[in-house]
Predict the structure.
Amino acid sequence: MGAGSKIAILLNGPPRAGKDTAVAVLEEAFGAEAETFKFTQPVKDRTHARFGLECAHDAYELLKDTPLPEFGGMTPREAYIDTSKRLKAEQGEEAVRKLFVEEILRSEAQIILNPDAGDDPEAESVAEALGPENVLVIRISRDGHDFSKDCRTWVTSSALRIVDVTNEEGRRREYQSQVVALARSFVETVRGSNPANEPHALAAE
């Protein structure tokens, strides 16, 4: 693939496994070339518009479990879930995934970063849009953290390129370096800078 191809790096893992930390170092590593998108972002934007709110998609992050009058007494989380259910009822189960794909295709960024890939259909929708050869899934595990209280799960699709990284306690710097190294290697491989390395051979050290 040429340098003009859009590349996506999707982070998958349970709550508090270190996905936000990973996306932050990737943003720093790739700079203006990259842009971060969440699958929840289009839903939040539409929820705010539905309630007549003009604000950033993450404006209520610190209050997402607090009932608020601007959401008709619902918590922001409940309002977002309600919007998601409405979209799926009106447009089908793939509605939210389609909105996300539309957002990333409109972006001028060459590298798409995503910190909340939650299952195979979400990751596969990105691969379908960009080409599976342009998508890398980094699965992040951390001792004591799982999906037991979350609606998301591990991405396991054999159609996707997946590497595993462990975020070990007390080794934050090593974890960050490993994520960046994997992402850079993948980007270089896709762009043909390192043709000797086949993408399927990428693996966490």
Notes: Confidence is low (pLDDT under 50) at residues 194-205.
